[in-house]
Amino acid sequence: MTETFDLHARLSGALHSRAEAWRFVADFAASWQQPLQAGDGWSVAEVEAAERRLGLVLPVALREAQLLLGRRTDLTSNHDTLLKPDELHVVDGALVYRVENQGAASWGILLADLDGDDPGTVMRPDLADESQERWEAWESSLTVACIEMVMSETVLFGGGFTDFLDAGAEEAGVVGRFRELPVVGRDVRWFADADVLIREVDGSCLNVRARTEKALDQLRDSVPGDWLEG
Asked: Which residues are within 8 A (CB) of 75 and not within 5 positions of it... i.e. 6 or more apart?
């Protein structure tokens, strides 16, 4: 899989097709983590129990995500958390499906959009003044949000060759020698080569995942700075 998975080409197609998005997620998992297997998702019964509890029908894409990889915490919950079916809940007109690891934000789908197969998502920050909290438009579709989730949680996976650099503009600019991937995620840019995946956040912070220790060491050598694990 690692020899044939063209991250750039496959991501381009996955951002515009629900079916291609799930194929991308499966092949990405096989290439950068472990292949998806039967039992990696929640059961149909567990998803339907959540629907009965909530009194609503989940969008097709959210149901597919839960059935495909809902139990794979290495792909969904290293930093932020994809909620289990029995944790899904409604807040101010939106179905919350993911939460930030310290409760600083939630991601959801507006109840008015639940009848769409692959609806857009919204984000709500946790503010000191709760009266100022609002749902804000986030990703264009749930499958795009799931692609971003799987890629982000992979570079944040504690069990692999990962590292973090709080870089200045000059240091962060060095990653431009890697191939930039199609845009996925807000305020995030992605770069990769055959052995390294890089997430650049807000033009500075770098989260990286490498296939081997050698590849990670070479990246650290090429991008100067105080690497967290280096």
From this structure: 25, 29, 33, 69, 149, 150, 153, 154
